Task: structure prediction
Amino acid sequence: MTTILITGAGGEVGYTLIHELAKNKDNYVVATSLHDLPPESEKESSEFIQMDITDKDSVTSVFAKHEFDTIFHLASILSTGGEKTPELALDVNTIGSINILEAATKQGLEIKKSIKFIFPSSIAAYGIPNLEEKKKAGKVTEKEYGHPITMYGMTKIFTENLGIYFSENYQMLSDIDRDNLIDFRCVRFPGLLSPDTLPSGGTSDYGSEMVHSAAQKRDYASFVRADSKIPFMAMIDAVMGIIKLSEADKKSLSQKVYNIRGFSPRASEIADEAHKLFPGTKITYDNINEIRQGIVDSWPEDLDDSPAQKDWGFKAKYDFERTFEKYLLPKIKERYGI
Ligand code: AKB
Result:
């Protein structure tokens, strides 16, 4: 059996990740979350444990119960939520991550095994100073624009660096067996579009909100301008991406942090697609939230994912049209009984 820990399993990514991991009967999936899981996720996971990642004792008791092969550390307060409660975001996203990284490192050293530690970072890790520069930058590489403006973005950069530290330099003066340090692997996700769940607390949320509102025959007042442009991808591609990264041969990985992306539409193009599939409603742009707009404007309009393609063969299965027509449409219709 492969014993897998998921933190933040009750979130959007957790929902699809549990569903995909449960298809392999050799996986024992320990889903953890501060709050209850959706009933489908609770049924599909092997075990649910309530865990508060900011509480060291809570984390220690989960690691005392299981020896993990792979960890997907998803728990996080997102970019908009993080600006409402920056102290909470700092606590959950940094102290919480430290607790999980430390527990995984200690367990690996104790059981003499390098535990795979998969961390989804985000386009929020980038910070581009203005729209002119954003346009000029085009597809950004992992090495550019590493000064985000949000608390969430800063904690993503911090956790990326901390993961690298724990996997390479932890206790660098000691003679511990470095082969048993964690095997840290990270992707930077773009905005994600899921037919099964609705996001909350993020700033790329407008993408999903446009589609789900149109499907529910509701008009939608966009909080970003029509020309806003950031990368997105289908949730299933994002989840298959982190599963694929977790299975990649370590020798083929030339870096620890990889961009992945699907397509890069303007907000108006998402709106057009939503209306094509679910006609009859309006999307308006006269109630822009300048703060959330500023966050989106600081994120790149596209990502260079060539290292992920080259090193571990990542390729999104769904392009823009296919995401709407083949992935979102059938499942959203089923969800809302259309
Ligand atoms: C957010 O909007 O905060 C997230 C993200 C892009 O990481 N969806």
Observations:
- The pocket of 2-amino-3-ketobutyric acid is lined by residues 78-79, 122-124, 152, 189, 191, 202-204 (CB under 6 Å).
- Residues 86-111 form the longest helix (26 residues).
- The CA atoms of residues 77 and 89 lie 5 Å apart.
- The chain has a mean pLDDT of 98.
